[in-house]
Amino acid sequence: MRVLILGATGGIGVLLVERAVADGHTVVVYARSPEKLPENLRDSSQVLIRKGQLTDAEALSDALQNVDAVLSALGPAVSRGPFHPKGEPLAHAYSLIIRVMKERGVTRLIALGTPSIKDPHDKFSLTMSTLVTGVSTFAHTAYKDIVAIGETICREGDSLDWTIARVPLLNNGSDASFVIGYVGDGRTTTCLTRIAFVAFVLRELAEREWVKARPLVTSP
Predict the structure, then answer these.
(1) Which residue, 113, 170, 196, 207, could crosslink 166 as a Cys pair with Cβ 3.0–4.6 Å?
(2) How far is CA 100 from the centre of its chain?
(3) Helix 89-104 vs helix 140-156: angle between axes, to the nearest 10 degrees?
(4) What is the pLDDT of residue 85?
(5) Torsion over CA: 70, 76, 77, 78 (sign)
(6) 32 Cβ partners below 8 Å, 6+ apart?
(7) What pLDDT digit, counting tens, does each position of 61-111 carry?
(8) Mean pLDDT score of the chain
(9) Shortest CA distance to 61 belongs to which of 73, 50, 47?
(10) 3-state DSSP assignment of residue 162
(11) Beta-strand (E) ranges in the chain?
(12) Strand 69-72's sheet: what is its strand order?
């Protein structure tokens, strides 16, 4: 497939580009600073670089030409706490991305989310509730943006085959195994390695098991 990857120069994004290339996909990297991508990926014949901002509809449209799916590792940096910009900038970016996807006839979107985005299948979990409350309290603008991302995708992506892969606390471990479920189901946990998230995304791209769903993806 030809896939457009957003957030490709971040920690998760680089892993996603590497795995997509290894799986034989052609990868379009749309980034504000594509020079941050490792040199071996920039030089790959399977990687096409498109420089642009998330607010630039024309550049996004050019990048989406002949694309089969959009894989997004975009997300607010909770570690920045209250310094995440106000006004839900990433949610607004998703609104534009979805609009341009529709114009280009691209229907598949797999996006990064967190348990701050609620799902009707979720059950109460004291541990997860504590984590979400902590984010809402100490990184409120980031919390509002991630919640707005979920609302935007669900509301404006009505004609898209979207999947929001909600992840808990991410780490740099080497275990690529994962379980899929919902908050409080007795199987999911509170952590996930970044490479396991990438493994889920590429599997979901191929198998389409969670279309129009917001599963929680965690370590076993």
Answers:
(1) 113
(2) 17
(3) 20
(4) 87
(5) negative
(6) 51, 52, 53, 54
(7) 999 999 999 999 999 876 676 788 899 999 999 999 999 999 999 999 999
(8) 96
(9) 50
(10) strand
(11) 2-6, 26-31, 47-51, 69-72, 108-113, 161-166, 169-171, 179-181, 191-193, 216-218
(12) 47-51, 26-31, 2-6, 69-72, 108-113, 161-166, 216-218, 179-181
Gap between the Cα atoms of 13 and 38, Å rounded = 11
Six-digit token string for 194? 């970044």
- How many other CB atoms sit within 10 Å of the CB of residue 113? 23
CA 142 remoteness from chain centre: 15
pLDDT tens track for 169-188: 999 999 999 999 999 999 99
Contact 205/22 with Cβ under 8 angstroms?
no
The token pair at 57 is 């509809």
- CB neighbours of 193 closer than 8 A, spacing ≥ 6? 170, 171, 172, 173, 174, 175, 176, 219
Q: What are residue 83's phi and psi, to 5 degrees? A: -90, -5
Residues in the chain: 220
Q: Average pLDDT in the 178-204 region?
A: 98
37's tokens: 């991508």
* Full-model pTM: 0.96
Strands 2-6 and 26-31, how do they pair? parallel
Instruction: Look at residue 3 and give its three-state secondary structure.
Output: strand
* Residue 104, φ and ψ in degrees, nearest 5: -90, -5
